[in-house]
Amino acid sequence: MDLIFTILLDGLIYASWLFIVALGLTLVFGVLKILNFAHGGLYALGAYGAAIAVPFFAGLGMPEWFSLLAMFIAAAAVAILIAPLIERGLLRYFYGRDEVLILLITYAVFLILEDVTKMIFGVNPYYVFEPRNLLGNVEMGSLFYVGYDLALIGLAIVCGLGVWFGLNRTRIGKITLAVIKEPEVSQAMGVNIARIYLLAFGVGVFLAALGGAFTSPLISVQPGNSVSVIVVSFAVVIIGGLGSIPGAAIGALIVGIARAFAVYELPEAEIFIIYLVMVAVLIFRPEGLFTPIKARKI
């Protein structure tokens, strides 16, 4: 029983930050119909931003708990500075174009962001240990877990509920849903489509940066983090279904538990078990678990 509990809890912890990143990816696709390969680079910027912000505010004499707020500030700064630059400066010229072209454009942005982070932050790793020490250890049965790791599960739940509430229970959210379903009709009725696109992309960037910022205490922040994250995030949204928030949650859970199971029972399969699960889902449901099947136009 201890092993099963450990696998489930470790899977939840891994799935929590992965869901936050995948949530931003699936939101951008749902609204803008763009599969944003640059999402990994934005995740990395959030991680680097947190690695700089936490010691900066600590040097100003701020209390230790302020390091958590510093990570939020870093993620928000990435969204405010980078989202308009990418969306207004580049992506808006390619809306409605071929999906392969847009994927190549976002891949080019990803490569640019990767080189920019190396130019600004160098190639040496950064370590952010202060936030992970704040919440101490929590006893769970016969095991002890870092409180910060468990808090990530709560953060993921808050992000998921926040996006769902924003889309379904607010005026701007309902307008966004209308734009998703009928952009031409929405524009004809006076909706500022450009503003909705920028807002949705900004939220997606914020979620990517937030995932990076709050993952930074768990890893060494260094070049290459973005590559692994974007690949696994794509696996999550493909399993759950592109554009589906519940799909992103279920996909992250499946990936997290599959990885945790491999770590404890099949260490040699840890690298590829995520992609094995993805292939298995695609064989039986190519559109993903939560994407409704659409009638094909002839």
UniProtKB/TrEMBL annotation:
<dbReference type="InterPro" id="IPR001851">
    <property type="entry name" value="ABC_transp_permease"/>
</dbReference>
<keyword id="KW-0029">Amino-acid transport</keyword>
<feature type="transmembrane region" description="Helical">
    <location>
        <begin position="143"/>
        <end position="167"/>
    </location>
</feature>
<feature type="transmembrane region" description="Helical">
    <location>
        <begin position="68"/>
        <end position="88"/>
    </location>
</feature>
<dbReference type="InterPro" id="IPR052157">
    <property type="entry name" value="BCAA_transport_permease"/>
</dbReference>
<feature type="transmembrane region" description="Helical">
    <location>
        <begin position="227"/>
        <end position="257"/>
    </location>
</feature>
<feature type="transmembrane region" description="Helical">
    <location>
        <begin position="100"/>
        <end position="123"/>
    </location>
</feature>
<dbReference type="Pfam" id="PF02653">
    <property type="entry name" value="BPD_transp_2"/>
</dbReference>
<keyword id="KW-0812">Transmembrane</keyword>
<keyword id="KW-0472">Membrane</keyword>
<feature type="transmembrane region" description="Helical">
    <location>
        <begin position="12"/>
        <end position="35"/>
    </location>
</feature>
<feature type="transmembrane region" description="Helical">
    <location>
        <begin position="269"/>
        <end position="286"/>
    </location>
</feature>
<keyword id="KW-1003">Cell membrane</keyword>
<protein>
    <submittedName>
        <fullName>Branched-chain amino acid ABC transporter permease</fullName>
    </submittedName>
</protein>
<comment type="similarity">
    <text>Belongs to the binding-protein-dependent transport system permease family. LivHM subfamily.</text>
</comment>
<keyword id="KW-1133">Transmembrane helix</keyword>
<feature type="transmembrane region" description="Helical">
    <location>
        <begin position="196"/>
        <end position="215"/>
    </location>
</feature>
<keyword id="KW-0813">Transport</keyword>
<feature type="transmembrane region" description="Helical">
    <location>
        <begin position="42"/>
        <end position="62"/>
    </location>
</feature>
